[in-house]
Here is the input.
Amino acid sequence: MLQASSLPSRVRPRTVSLWLFLAAALVVAMVVIGGITRLTESGLSITQWKPISGIIPPLNAAQWQAEFDNYKRIPEYQQINRGMTLAGFQAIFFWEYVHRLLGRVVGMVYLLPFLYFWARGRLPRGYAPRLGALVALIVLQGAIGWWMVSSGLTKRTDVSHIRLAIHLVTALTLLAGTVWTALDLRDLAATRLARPARLRAFAAAALVLLFTQIMFGAFTAGLDAGYAFSSWPLMGNEIFPAATPMTEPMWRNAIDNPIVVQFIHRWLAFVAAAGVVALGWRAIRADAPRIGGIAIALVAGQILLGIATLLSGVEIVVAVAHQANAALLLIAAICAAHAVGRRTI
Here is the structure.
């Protein structure tokens, strides 16, 4: 069997794959910090988008007061946080600042190594367009982030839950594409006969279910729907509260009605879980028992964390663990899908 050494000497598939695994780890960290930012209601504390100068936080009392004055102009302060102290503002500013700073770091981690590997001819043939698309996606993600924040600066007291969902799903699409590409490159480093894995239909179906469930998780967070009912398995004393106010048209309830959204998120979880468990079992049968077992274990953990989040009244540590586990579950599902779609020439 031909080994990676038979590739052109300048090509470094293993090095490129390690870079992508590092980038994926940073995206997971970004998702976790984003969850904390949402749960602490810190996302609107920075009211301007300054890609370069915004790297430097306020350094003296006058700069802090200027930032606080900007915050006082938006509806969130005027209708919810009026009377907040400067110290309270600094607490929420911290998480939004860290989130934006990490976003810049992630952007550089994608962009600069890509340019270096491309300029030095280190990328295997056919991978430059795919990696370029990942870089473009991280740039798009930054724009979506500001688009999301801007929705809460004029008329609303929070960000649009739909834009929040788009922001999260885009981040996880970036994560999925990064991990899949890293796995393809790892296989190529092991043998030149390796070809990019194929996404099988049943694996795609399982991933679509998982992404849909995560999207409803974002709706739940954005609407504060997790606070609607903190009991399990019933919502109050019913499977679905019969007295729930509904809006027209009816389909809008699945997006905008907090009670309906929580109901869907509760029970779609088991459909998505079944899909990922089936995918994990296929991975085990495809000679990838470890990743298949991890995917199945993370599914069980995610269900338990979701229930715990409800029962705890959306206690922040539990809720953040739920979101972090979702990102890890997505990685495991991508690895399982890759394992069953692996192929050689």
Observations:
- The two ends are 11 Å apart (CA to CA).
- Strands lie at 194-195, 343-344.
- DSSP finds eleven helices and two strands in the chain.
- Confidence is low (pLDDT under 50) at residues 1-5.
